[in-house]
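Lab channel / #folding
Pinned by the channel admin:
"Please post every new chain as: sequence first, then the C-alpha cells as a reply. Keep commentary short and put observations after the output so the thread stays searchable."

First post following the new format, from NK:
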Amino acid sequence: MKSFRTPQKYLAAVDHDAAANLLAAAADVAIVLGRDGVILDLAVSDSDLEALGVEGWIGKRLEETVSAETRPKVAEMLAQAPDDVPGPWRQVNHLAGNRDGADIPVNYAAQRLGKADQILLIGRNLAAIAKL
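Reply from TO:
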C-alpha cells in the first residue's frame, strides 16, 4: 500500500464527521471495536450486509457475529492489528441469521486507532465473488 506522503499537511482539516463519511463510502462495512473486541459503532454501505441486520451487532463482540471456523482468524487479526497502517486482509464469514443460510464472506483490514485503544476494521463484502 502506498499512502499519502504528507497527510498532516493536506488532510489536517478532515474532521470526525468527514472521516466517518469517507470511511462509510469507501468500505462495504466499517467497524470500530473496543479493546475487548466489542463493536462500538459501525457504518454500512452494502445492501446485503445491511439486510443482514449489522446495526444489531453494536454492543456485541465481533466473534459473536462470525462462524465458528473463522473465530481464530478474528482473534489473530485483532491481536496483530498494526498501529501505523492497515494490516493484511483477512476473510471472515459472518453468520447469515435468518437469510438463506449462506454465511456472508467479508474481507477485513484492521488498524489500531492511535491511543484510543480501539481498532478500525474496513470490510469488503465477498459474497458476489464467492457465488462465481
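NK: Helices lie at 7-10, 16-26, 47-52, 71-79, 127-131.
TO: also worth noting, The chain has one domain: 7-131.
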